[in-house]
Write the structure tokens for this entry.
Amino acid sequence: MTDVLGLVAVLPASAGACCTVGAWRPGRAVDVVAAITMVAAMADGLLTPRVLPGAAWFLVLVVLAVALAAVDRSQRNGARADRSARLHAALGLLVMGAMGVGMSHDGSMPGMHDHGGPVAATWAVVLAGLTAGYLVLTVAEVRGCLRERERAQERGRRRAGMLPLLETVTMGTAVVVMAVGMLS
């Protein structure tokens, strides 16, 4: 069941990555690399044998999350919506990486799958906190996207951008599906 839900989670994550690529503009290359890498990490989790162990993917995603934050800080003149979207993307990388480690049984994290062990319990608490924080931020980001669409339509723009909203919703959906997979 976990493998099926993992596969199901890759679908909205892939759609979210397509939205990131579709909304690309100069200075946002790290966003595209991060989105594609996250989908690759999720897809690799479905393979046996894996290309990289879960812990290695987690480290790659952490580095990309830091890169997103660093790029955001270097582009201080960006809109609040862009900063919020970058925070959402960076936290999403951390959540998906942590879930990938939690769902992997490749031995890359000793003690992770000793049911009831201290490493597994600590990881579960950290993951629950990351996931809850990410989903709260997802709801806030969706509300922000909807407000931005309303403002754009009030200014006479018929085709207010849907990609940021779709990206946020699809990534939130992927996290929910992965969380359900971890609980089952």
Notes: The mean pLDDT is 84. The chain is about 75% helix and 0% strand. Helices lie at 2-22, 29-44, 54-74, 80-103, 118-154, 163-183. Residues 112 and 120 are 5 Å apart (CA to CA).
